[in-house]
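Major facilitator superfamily (MFS) profile domain-containing protein: C-alpha cells wanted.
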Amino acid sequence: MRFEDVLDEVGGFGRFQFLVLSILCLPRFLLALQFLLHNFISAVPDHRCAPRPSETGPGLHTKSLLQVHGSGSPGLCWVYGPDNSTVSCPHGWVYNQTDFSSTTATEWDLVCEDRKLNQVLATYFFLGVTVGAVVFGQLSDKFGRRSMLLVALVLSTVMSAASAFSTSYVMFAVSRALCGVALSGLSIIGVVLGIEWTDVRHRTFTGTVMSLSWSLGNMCLGLMAFLIRDWRLLTLAVTVPCALAIVCWWWLPESARWLLVNGRTKEARTFLVQCAIMNKRNEQTSKLDLEVLAKVSICEEVQKTHSYLDLVKTPQLRKITLCSGLSWFAVAFLYYGISLKISGLGVSIYLTQFIYGAIEAPAKIASFFVLDWIGRRNGQACFLIITGALVGVNTALPLDLMAARTCVSVIAKGFSEAAFTTAFLYSAELYPTTLRYHNLGSESQKIQRRGSEEQRRGSDGAQEKVRWSRGSAEEDVEGRVRGCRGDGQKEQRMQRRGSEDAEERVRGAEDAEERSRGCRGDEQRMQRRGSEDAEERVRGAEDTEERVQLN
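Answer:
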C-alpha cells in the first residue's frame, strides 16, 4: 500500500485540506509583499542638487552636464565650481515628494554615483533567498516541514522589523538579506506541505489556490504603497501578516508523508486520524494501525540522508534536473523582468502594480483548466513561448504607443505568472518525497539569481525555449510505482502461500480425522466380529452340552 492509498481512505481533499490550504495561503500572501517591496521602498524620485545656503561668497552654480555624462537634467548630480571644474552636489540633494515622502534613496542619498548602492539592495535580498533555499532545504528534510516553517516565520518577522528600524545602510542591507533567507523557506515549505497533504487528482487545484494568494498580495502591495509613502512605515505594514501567520501556525499539521518517510508512524497516525475525523471518514480510523503504516513507510523506500548530489544520481534524475533548471531560468527571467519594471508604462506605478497583480488571477484560473487539458509539460512550454513573444513585441513597439505597450505588458505578465505557477507544481510532482525539497531549493536559487540580475539591469526579460523530458520523468515515476506494486505483489504471493499452507493443514487435519473415523470403524467391526465369534462359540458349547445330555 502506498501513501496515496492511505490518503484516499482518510480523505485526500476535504475539510482538513481546506484548513491546511487556508493556513498556508497567509505565508504565500506575505511573500508577494516582501519580494516586490523593493519597487517602492527603494524607488528613486526626481532630484536635483540642493541650492547653496547663502547667495554670497564664491558659491557654485548649477548647470546641465548633458554633454559630459550623456544624460541628466540641470543640477541633477553635478555643479560647476569657481574654476569651472565639476563637483558632486556639495550641499546634498532635494527630492520630489509627489510620489514618495521618503525612500532608501532619499534616506542615505543613494543617487548619482551612489545609485548602484541603492540598486544592489535587491541583489542582497535575493542572495539571501538563494542561501535560504539551501539552508531550509536541508533543515526541512531533517527536522520536518512544520517546525522549519515556524523558524522561517519568526526569522522573517524579526528581520523585516529590523530593516524598518535600520539606522544605517549596512544594517538595512544585512537585515533584508536575512529576511530573504527566511522568506525562501516560507516559499518552498508552503508548496511542498500543501501538495503532500492533497491527493493526486486535486494537486493542480491546490497549487492554483495557493498561488492566488500571491496575486492578492501583489494587489495589496500596490494599495498599501499608495496609502503609505514612507518606506519605514511601509516595511512595518508588510511585516504585520508575518505575526498573524505565526498565530495560525499552531493549527497547521506536519506532513504525514514526511513522518512516514522518517519512520515516525505513531505521529503520522495521529495526523491521519485527525484528517479522517475532520473529513467525516471515522470508519477509516480503525484501519490505520501501525503495521499498515509501517508497510507504507517501507513502500516509500526511505533513505534518511540525501543531498543535492542525489538530483543527478541517476540518468532519469539528471535529465529532469537539467530540464527543470532550464525551465526555472526562463520563468524567473521573464517574471521578474516584467514585475520589477513598473515604470515607463504611462500610468502610475501604484496602478501598474495593482494591474499586474489583478491580471494574475484570471491567468491562474485559466491555467488550472489548461493544465488538466494539455498536461504540465505542454502547458509550461506554451506559457513560456507566448510570454517571450509578447516581450519581444513590446520591445519593438515605439515608445509613444503607451497604451499598446501597457496592454502587451499586462498580458505578458499574466502568461509569465501562469508559467511560474506551473513550474512550482510540476517540479514538486516530478521528484520523490525525500528529494522534492532539494529540487525546489536548487530551482529557487536560479530564480533569485535571475531576480537580482533583472533588478540591476532593469530588463524587460527575454525568451528561453525549454524542452521538457517528460518520458524520462514518467519512467522514473513508473519505476517507483512498479517497485511499490512489486512489494505489494510479493506480499500478496506470501499471503496466498500462507493461505495455501493453511488450507493444506486443514486438509491434513480432515484426512487425519477421516483416518481416525476409519480406525474407529475398523475397531467397531472387529469388536462386532469378536462378539459374534464369542456368541458362536457359546452356541457351539451349548449344542455340545445338549448332545452329551442326549447320549
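The beta strands are 47-49, 61-62, 78-80, 86-88, 93-95. The longest strand covers residues 47-49.

Cheers.
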